[in-house]
Design goal:
The protein has 20 helices and 3 strands. It is mainly α. The chain is globular and about 65 Å long.
Length: about 450
């Protein structure tokens, strides 16, 4: 029998061979040494000149782009969206027996990430909202009708709608008092679907998907890390991380990246003893007499904390890029040039915080799929599957977290350095990276501290 949704990480008391603070210092030293090596050995851009990649075999590309494959994937994803919505709306109102919470927060939210990072941007083919909108458009055309967008999408709006919707999703997950409540998820799915399809009808389904649909923008950023991408309409094999080369000038992309980083940072903060004590003090006067008010106050406090963590990311990045511009002697803002260096950090923050949730709670997807509504069915003959609840020791989890954070920040340094040597001669390029190095060290040490508090 499945158990309720687990916490986002599996930790516990660690009996480490060295004090925790040595990991902080060690991570900082690794970053400084990596910075020195980059400055010494990486004299010209490597990522940007290799970003074009090599086209994959034409036969394989024809298969991957075939209408049959896309229709099949779209039908499956649309069916899953309908199924998850119905289980959330009509199934047993418990995350222990209802498929919806595990599917939304684990299979979908976490499970798509490795697909994007390994295979490239496969999400557009899996996007159920886009698949349903495309099916409606096909039927509409088959009836001899035409539909023209009724609103011209303002270029200056960029991906701000996606950033807002992504914030709404992480706020539901991290701030709402009962995020795994199936009925709450049913309402969230309905509202998100309504907003998405209205946006697609208003400005065009593909334009809204690229600018306003939160998961397309989020997963698309992570796909830039992958060894496969698209160039001039062709699928290409490329150097990993080369998709992050160049400047990112889309309005609102900093907001998206800040939500990616700030939300994971707040997730760690919210499970620390410092935050738990603060929440207890704020909710304490209302818990006994007005539990509903206590929940509301706690949710508002969490929303403020989440917004604060996102704001810290924005302010820190803007300050670092302004210092970088002054150090390099440049005149134009460097904000678009180094933004993509934060994407590997957002990825490894997610890995460090959530890989145990994906591995452990993901095992419940099969028995829950066998009885999606919690009505006692056994459609797949897997209702009695017993997952392994402790696949990793706490120390193993900690080592993976440390390794992921350090590796991701080194990758971020490399992406930023690659852009710097494209923009400046060697000495100004190196000077421009001092502030970003300090930012990366702060992110690394801060992330490790948050993980150590869980």
């Amino acid at each position: 029998m499945p158990v309720p949704m687990l916490a986002h990480g599996i930790g516990g008391v660690r009996d480490l061979p060295v004090p925790t603070w040595l990991f902080f210092w060690g991570a900082a030293v690794v970053l400084v040494l990596s910075f020195l090596l980059l400055g010494t050995l990486w004299k010209r851009s490597q990522l940007e000149r290799r970003a074009e990649g090599r086209p994959i075999p034409p036969a394989l590309e024809r298969v991957l782009r075939s209408t049959v494959l896309h229709v099949l994937l779209g039908a499956v994803s649309a069916g899953l969206l309908v199924l998850v919505f119905l289980t959330a709306l009509l199934g047993e109102p418990s995350s222990a027996t209802n498929l919806a919470p595990t599917f939304v927060y684990v299979v979908f939210w976490l499970g798509i990430v490795p697909l994007q990072v390994v295979l490239g941007n496969v999400w557009p083919a899996l996007n159920p909202w886009l698949a349903i909108a495309s099916a409606v458009a096909w039927v509409w055309r088959s009836l001899g009708r035409s539909w023209n967008p009724i609103v011209v999408y303002p270029e200056r709006l960029g991906v701000y709608p996606a950033a807002l919707l992504l914030f709404a999703f992480v706020a539901l997950e991290l701030c709402y008092v009962d995020p795994a409540n199936p009925r709450a998820l049913a309402l969230a799915i309905a509202l998100y679907s309504y907003v998405t399809w209205i946006g697609m009808a208003a400005v065009g389904r593909r334009l809204w998907a690229e600018r306003g649909e939160a998961f397309t923008v989020y997963f698309g950023l992570l796909a830039r890390i992958a060894p496969f991408g698209e160039r001039d309409g062709r699928i290409v094999a490329r150097l990993p991380f080369s998709g992050l080369a160049g400047a990112e000038r889309t309005p609102g992309m900093l907001a998206v990246v800040a939500v990616m980083l700030g939300s994971v940072g707040f997730d760690g903060l919210s499970r620390s003893s410092v935050w738990q004590d603060l929440r207890a003090r704020v909710e304490g006067p209302y818990v006994l007499d007005s539990p509903g008010v206590a929940d509301l106050v706690g949710t508002l406090l969490a929303l403020g904390g989440l917004a604060g963590c996102i704001a810290v990311v924005v302010v820190a990045y803007l300050a670092a890029t302004r210092l970088a511009r002054r150090a390099a002697g440049g005149e134009q803002s460097l904000e678009p040039d180094f933004l993509q260096s934060l994407v590997p950090i957002a990825l490894v923050y997610a890995v460090a915080h959530y890989f145990t949730l994906l591995v452990v709670q993901g095992q419940f997807a099969l028995p829950l799929a066998s009885d999606p509504f919690g009505f006692g069915w056994d459609l797949l003959g897997a209702a009695d599957v017993a997952p392994n609840l402790a696949p990793f020791s706490p120390n193993t989890v900690w080592y993976v977290q440390v390794g992921a954070l350090v590796t991701g920040h080194v990758a971020g340094l490399a992406v930023a350095h690659d852009r710097a040597v494209t923009l400046f001669s060697p000495r100004p390029a190196l000077r421009s990276q001092y502030a970003l190095l300090a930012l990366m060290v702060a992110y690394t040490v801060g992330g490790l501290w948050l993980l150590s508090q869980e």
